[in-house]
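Hey everyone, long-time lurker, first post.

I ran two proteins through the pipeline my lab uses and got sequence/structure pairs for each. Pasting them in order. The first:
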Amino acid sequence: MRERLQKVMAHAGVGSRRYSEILIEQGRVAVNGQIVTTMGTRVNPEKDTIHVDGMPISLNPEHLTIALYKPFGVVSSMNDEFGRRDLTEFVEKYEQRLYHVGRLDEDTEGLILLSNDGELTHRLTHPSYEVPKTYVARVEGKVTRGLTRVLEKGITLEDGPVKVDKFVLREARDRNSIVELTLHSGRNRIVRRIMDEVGHPVMELVRMRFGNIQVGRLKPGQTRVIAGNELSALMHLVEM
């Protein structure tokens, strides 16, 4: 079913129909890769792709993506076979059936995304898109600033080489230190294994950021819907 472009844009959360019309008139809207300036253009939300200022907009009203602050001790599963505490209790209020985007270890807390958009989920978890993730960790021992150079250059683990995109020493004390790591590797327990390898085992670990999505003001167990410009930027990150 084809609908007026400005109506589809308004339903997708771009803005009012009048604001959408202004964007079209200014040549800031593309349909299937072609700039559209003709008012009254009709599109098929199920088949066409629409970009505003080069950023994609989500056209399927059934699609839902949320951010969850996963508490410590919760497994990244929608139905844990061992009866452990899982993610289902935090998404029961949503009507759509959601799937977790990647995983966080049971003993790691922080940001995890859940979505029913299969293509978005696939791309966010596929290694070829190299989506960066940022963690803050409390580790054993006093970390020196020289570790930044070591980790950003790369080290070798039992399953191959890995390097940290960015390493920040936030606080260094004799018994423990606080560090921030940004990396795009999705290998199992990668942050813990990296810090083990350099002699600073992780004591506490929190994921603060996934792509452009930040944990923000979320507290353990809280969720928020990702929409509008934030969702567009996330889709753009994986070339949708």
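...and the second, right after it:
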Amino acid sequence: MTDDVLPHAFGVPPLRARLRSTPDDFRVDEILGYEPDGAGEHVFLRVEKRGANTDWVAREVAKFAGVPPLNVGFAGMKDRHAVTTQIFTVQLPGKAEPDWTTFPHADVTLTSLGRHSRKIKRGALRGNRFVLVLRDIEGDRAAAEERLASIAARGVPNYFGEQRFGLGGRNVEQAKAMFAGRRVDRDKRSILLSAARSHIFNGVLAERVRAGNWDTQMEGEIWGLDGSRSWFGPEAFNDTLAERVARFDIHPTGPLWGQGETPAGDAAGELERSVAARDPDIVTGLASARMDQERRALRLKPTDLSWRWLDDGALEVQFALPSGAYATTVMRELMTEP
């Protein structure tokens, strides 16, 4: 299901605007959640890049440091068409650090923050902070601010963003071809498996947005703990659960499909099975790939959401999101692009 047909939680977005007019209008700062421990073989390196791909920067850093690419670690991919900061680790056993200020790419700045005992692993970050600027705006300011207030209060449907599905959304079709026997390399296989699971998740969430229960409970609900991959249920809904939902301590969840049955029961389980049944080749392929049944929160609440109108009529929006969430998923409730 492509982004343009996914239903909105709050109705038609009130603005038409351009996002990413330049990379400077889309700033992402990684929230790693810890500092270098001061000892070890790994250099803790702050990387600021503009208009560059994370994988490419990692390879160039390895080449500059004279180490294999496997010696460079980072927690997550950052947008190419943006200004981003994140942490790399570079393993330099028994070697002095190079002069990072002489790195030969003008749009990448490297700063050593000290030594660390371990390589950063993929996914090992708390989240990201975004500063986004919308330009060439059409629409009503008051309606936009009302929509932003609704997003701050209720969050948004936690759709996987279009980045997950590749250019033109083709990753899902490529995943189906892989399940039918087409050979792909290991890195591509992981990307396609993720796209296939995300496709079913977005389909379930879309149905719940249409029904108006994307941020509340259904019979047979599986609940996810905020900021955690842990989940529990189904169990009878009560005042205690209602209070936890209201303060965003727990969230209703949807399936990251895999082998076996969804743990959701009653109406929630019936919905998830019916959506998955639309793509039997994906269901069979994920089971054959031995993917486990996992869960993802259906709602996403930006933290520290704020906004201001700039002198030139542009709108600046700031917020933080947990790891695995998409800024474009937040912004699609506010705006569409021409």
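Reply from user beta_strand_b:
Welcome! Quick read of the second one: The helical segments are 54-65, 141-154, 171-179, 186-211, 239-246, 266-276, 280-288, 327-331. The mean pLDDT is 95.
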